[in-house]
Amino acid sequence: MILNRYLIAEIIKPLISMVAVLVIIFAAHSTNRYLADATFGLMSIKTIIFIILLKVLIALEVVLPTSLYLSVIVGIGRLYNDNEMTALFASGVSLCRVLAVVFVLSLPVALLGGSLSLAVRPWAYEQFFWLKAKAKAEFDVTRLKAGRFYKIGEGDRFIFIEKIDQTRQRAEGVFMEKDPKEGNDLLEVVYAKEAYQRLDPATGRQVIFFLNACRYELPRTGEGKGRVMESAQYTVSLWPKEITPLEYKTKAASTFYLARSKNPSDIAELQWRMLSPLSTLLLALLGVPLSRIETRKGKHANLPIGIIIYGFYYSIVTVAKLGVQQSQIPPWLGIWWVQGLLAVVLLILLLNPSQQCWSHPRCR
Predict the structure, then answer these.
(1) What span, in angstroms and rounded, lies between the C-alpha atoms of 162 and 146?
(2) Within 13 A of 347's CA, how many CA atoms are on the CB side?
(3) Which of 15, 27, 65, 252 has the fewest C-beta atoms lying within 10 Å of its C-beta?
(4) Same domain, residue pair 217 and 130
(5) CA–CA gap between residue 161 and residue 134 (Å, rounded)
């Protein structure tokens, strides 16, 4: 028992550090991505903070197995580096026992990761999509920062405002560009001296009113003739003021719903969620043979190769998931073959003569 606690402690110490570092990295990435929306007035700071917390929560399903895998390499690698593993093997402790300790440690991590993936992930995505819809519904052109370009509408319009008159709640010197739809080569550009936004009670949609507007329709290719139209008022309809029911999102669907679905995208998402606990166990065990290093080479000596193997594994899983989504890989095979491949790699490494796993009678 003392040995078991010692091995677990050696793994948990780097595990805590790695989880903290990876969470900070994910949080920083999300902050960098969404903070601009708060700066430009598209989202409130409170909304941005909640979104960042949701993204970190979603990332934990990947962070936990990754951190445990790397922590096994580093933790047991330190024991190899300091000749402690050699002493343990000489005293009759087999690598089988080390594997058993790692397996026991990985079980609660796998259960936590599975819970995050199967239950928390869809809830977090549902909240995330709802917050984005809420931010869209609360959009107001007069809250934008002057002198910046913004993407509005369904992502097909860009707007630029020279000045905001907060007293009159109007934007001045407004340019708006609309990308042409498929099959239409005309690029639409609108310039207005003033613009304001109101809710149309008849449709329930937000509408931007451009006053003293000039509307240009220009050939995108540069060939052909364009048109210039002037009007006292030109309107652009945006989206409903009220938050409409969200369209179906696979990532936000409940696991129970996905289990009954025959849609390839739903099947791929379900298999991805179920992957977390299995990959946690396999990766943790894989870290044991990868931790073996020569004395005094440093406990991080095998960390680069461990990262490369994980990157290769994650890439294959991602490609396999995409293959299931596009019906290129049958659902029964799905992404499970990648786990089989990982298990084969684990067995090959454990059966390597350089490993001392089978040298003790208890392993026979």
Answers:
(1) 5
(2) 6
(3) 27
(4) no
(5) 23
Residue recorded with tokens 């609360």:
138
For residue 258, give its domain range.
Answer: 2-136+248-363
| Per-residue model confidence as pLDDT tens for the chain (364 residues) | 788 888 899 999 999 999 999 999 989 888 887 776 666 666 777 888 899 999 999 999 999 999 999 999 999 988 888 788 878 888 877 888 889 999 999 999 999 999 999 999 999 999 998 888 777 766 667 667 777 777 766 656 788 888 888 778 788 888 888 776 655 667 888 898 888 888 777 776 778 888 888 888 877 766 667 788 888 888 887 765 554 555 678 898 999 999 999 999 999 999 999 999 999 999 999 999 998 877 666 667 788 898 999 999 999 999 999 999 999 999 999 999 999 999 999 999 888 756 544 444 445 4
- Can you give the pTM of this predicted structure? 0.76
342's tokens? 């990982």
Residue 74's Cβ-count burial label (10 Å; 0-12, 13-18, 19+) is: buried
